[in-house]
Amino acid sequence: MFSMRRHANFIKRFKSASCLFTASILFPMQISAAVSDYDALVIEARGGNSAPLLRYLEDQGKKSALTPNQVADWLQVSGWVDNNDKTTIEIWQRYRGQMDVPARGKVAAARAYRNQKNWNDSLALWESVLQEEHDNVDVRTGWIMTLADARYNQQALTEANKWAQAHPGADSDALLAYVYHSQGKNWDALLVASQADDVDPGNKNAQSTLLSALSANRVSGPALNMAEVVPTADPVKRRLELDAAAEMVRSSYTSARNEEERFIVADKALARYDQLLAAWKDEPSAQNDVRRARIDRMGALLVRKRTAEVIQEYDSLSASGDVPNYAKRWVASAWLSERQPEKTEAMLTSIYYPNGPIPVTPLSPEDQQDLFYAHIDNENFDAAKKQVDALIKDSPYLRRIYGSPTPQPNDNWLLGQSLLTQYHIAANELPEAEKLAEHLARTGSGNQGLRISYASVLEARGLPHAAEKELKLAEVIEPSNLELERQQAYVALDLQEWKQADELTDDVIARSPDDEATLRLARIRDVHKMSEVRISGTQGISSDSPVSGKNDFNINTAIYSPPINDNWRLFTGFNFATGEFEEGKGISRDLAAGAEWTSRDYWAEMEVSGRNYGDGQKIGGRLSGWHDFNDNWRVGGSAERLSRNTPLRALRSGVYANGGDMFVRWYQNERREYQLSFAASHFSDGNDRIEYGLSGKERMWTTPRFTLDFTPGIGGSTNTKENVPYYNPKSDFSVVPGLSAEQVLYRHYDTVWTQQGLAGVGGYWQQGEDAGAIVQVGYGQRLKWNNVVDGGVMLIWDKRPYDGKRERNISLAFDLNVRF
Q1: In which domain, by residue range, is 479 found?
Q2: What string of DSSP letters covers 755-785?
């Protein structure tokens, strides 16, 4: 704030004694004493103790008429007292009609009116004095400052410039800076204030004005340094301290090469806040500043990922008063990090849309993204789509900038398209997401983020090879981009490029250890390196099947070690099957051990097992594997001694089988795939069995929480030997088209609870028997939790013919996969 010289021309007040000159001729001793006492009071007032003089003038005014100079003294000294403007105005109003008060008294009254924001009366007095003292610097300055305060912007600016040209110097520049500042032209104010300080570095007016300009422009550090030189009141200095600390908080949110640099700035801010809070906590007059410090400190806590402390501080602050919206945004981010999207969504909606569907102010790109992801994480897909549609509607591809004849690309248009892509992914509309993401990536080839987004869609559709190619193209632009490396790590895990995934993940963790996206990637990598338990089986409830028997039960278990040297895992397992047939109860027990090997595009397992099925202990073996040629084609197969696919009824009769199988899978995307399989078995009783099948999936309907697939199935078999003690048709063939549905009952990040239903109706043909119908119905539920538990159970009912007789089977199928 510009400081006026309140004590200028004070020497005039000594003229107040001149009116006693004539009287002193008649009463020399008395008048001399009165003058001496009055001068002493004036000198004492100049020293800072104005109360005696003010009491004297108050008393004297009641006894006899005061002289104009005494009234001027009274007005001037009254103006020196803090918060005494009303009294000064009362004195002025009492005497203004009785006498011609000297200019210095009018100036004091003008200042009092200005402090009370009574601009018109203040300006009238300034202009009255200017007629008497046209070149008085203080009067001219006070008048121009009052014009600025009264929002006579153009006149104030014109007069300030005229005065600066006529009387160049630091004081005139400081006055011009004040006028600019009053009009909100803070950068202009800072420029002129800096010039004033350069002209006369020791000028107090220039220094005070520069301090105000720096503070108004949020150049808080230099402003705080100046406060050590320029006399500053404690409240102002506390405000500057808080501004400087808040500047560090803002700096911690700017982009940096890595997260560690932002953490350094945030840590400095937190350390400074700790010092300020400790210094001010017991000072009553600083409690508002303490509250502001606690509010702004939450921003630094959020940068340091101390989200629980942000929420705790907000709860404490909101209990004792309102918290500003800018801080509530930090709290919303903290809630989102703590996986409480429902609170985030509610808070952001209350900030941006307090009065209905129209925002109080246009949302910034950051605001749009925060609110969008709050909707998505809270499964509020309708609100997310509505928000994106509104953004796209209000964001044309090109926008016109005032003063430029050439339309410019609109960043909000790109933001809308990017958020629409993310909506399609979250809403399970992957074909639409791929189409849009590819269009954006191809038309904006220089935008690395668009290629990364396109690659993420390809990965979500089960096409990691294509995603890898896109990421390689994106790598040319900025190889060390964190988001690029994260996406490359995910793709490397899908492709079984274990070393590459480790190198990328380790680099990302080193550069951004506390970032949410990094923590998710690290979690997925950690889960991959865990041990694993697999359990699956069926329990017959009501069955007359000649294949499985009555009261049938089977269970298959396996325990895998953590990865060894990236590519290997050891495993051991136990399998058990039992069922009751006409000829007796069949039991099979397997104890197996082996190794799994995985590498890019390859998977293989080697197993040795000890089998006991009532005919002594026998040693079996298995070799299985597959190879991916690309995202679409996979070929695999297996060879087994003492095949696990041998019917339990055959084993009950002492018949075992050796065999093998192979398959070819064609995979287009998550919505369409087919697999052709072929298997051959040689039974110990001389029978040779050939089995073949074709299965597939065609997506029919998709919503964010529901999918419906058409699942055609064709299968058949031939056998070379008849009259064996197990179900063994000469040849058979089945066609069973079906439907498979899945609905999400509950989803919260990595916890997903779903229900499934399946139904199929088809036909079965067996050589030598009449054709019959096959009917299948099933219902089940599945739970996935925290990426480490995946388990489900399904009740299945089917009815089909065996050797011309229709049999009903009701069974319960279950499976569980646990990482630990």
Answers
A1: 428-528
A2: EEEEEEEEEEEETTS--EEEEEEEEEEEEEE
